[in-house]
Design a protein that fits this description.
Its EC number is 1.3.5.1. By secondary structure, the chain is of the alpha+beta class. The chain has helices at 49-59, 120-128, 148-152, 171-175, 182-192, 200-207, 221-225, 232-245; strands spanning 17-25, 35-43, 79-82, 85-88, 100-104, 111-113, 116-117.
């Protein structure tokens, strides 16, 4: 008998579709105000929004300006507002988006050009909370051992990649850029609850300022915007509690 070998079914063809990409443009050398410009881009379902921007810059308008680096959701440099929500362009799949995608720079920070903002106010607030390990006394003679429970206490807030998606999604920050912002509080939390750190009181005093942690209105925008899934609103509440009871 002759064996019958069935041919494997052909893989379904991946179909491109045309996406309308509407970008809020701004060139300080020629524009008095930002304006919207629309581009038509053919895209695969597996493309990311970052791929669309690279396509536009490479083939349609080389003057388009935006930040990007690793393209894998680690560096945080390509944070922008995509259909009204702060996202990382490298993590948003075209298949999950409608046929029209609106892209603009994150809010609350000075706009420099197109999708690029001045990040210095953001990093100034970050530096202000002393985001580094503080210890006093003599240099330790042995390794400082932490239990798993001690490490777990602040594990969530170690995930921050400083993309500013949380801070620039905060309604308080939009109207008061003196507010230290969610990202700075998250990075303070990471050390406040670290059993090896001895700078807790210093950081709590910094965050007890009128532009500190009490400006948070618990809208959860920051938690929803975080591309790393950090429970930011929870972390802010824990810092508030530490301030009230002066213990961690």
């Amino acid at each position: 008998m002759t064996a019958i070998v069935e041919k494997p079914a052909a893989a379904p063809a991946i179909v491109k579709r045309t996406v309308s990409v509407k970008i809020r443009r701004f060139n300080p050398e020629v524009d008095a105000e930002p304006h919207w410009q629309t581009f038509q881009v053919e895209a695969l379902p597996t493309d990311r929004v970052l791929n669309l921007l690279l396509n536009i810059k490479g083939y349609q308008d080389g003057s388009l300006t935006f930040r990007r680096s690793c393209a894998h959701g680690v560096c945080g440099s390509d944070a922008m507002r995509i259909n009204g929500v702060n996202r990382l362009a490298c993590k948003v799949l075209v298949k999950d988006m409608p046929d029209e995608i609106m892209i603009e720079a994150i809010k609350g920070l000075p706009l420099e050009k197109d999708l690029v903002v001045d990040m210095e106010p953001f990093f100034e607030a970050y530096r202000a909370v002393k985001p580094f390990l503080i210890t006093y006394g003599n240099q330790p003679s042995r390794e400082h051992i932490q239990s798993q429970a001690e490490r777990d206490r602040f594990d969530d807030t170690t995930k921050c990649i400083l993309c500013a998606a949380c801070t620039s999604s905060c309604p308080v920050y939009w109207t008061d850029n003196k507010y230290v912002g969610p990202a700075a509080i998250v990075n303070a939390h990471r050390f406040i609850f670290d059993s090896r750190d001895e700078g807790t009181e210093e950081r709590l005093e910094i965050l007890n300022d009128r532009e500190g942690v009490w400006r948070c209105r618990t809208t959860f925008n920051c938690t929803e915007a975080c591309p790393r899934g950090i429970e930011i609103t929870k972390a802010i509440a824990e810092v508030k509690r530490a301030l009230l009871y002066r213990r961690v």
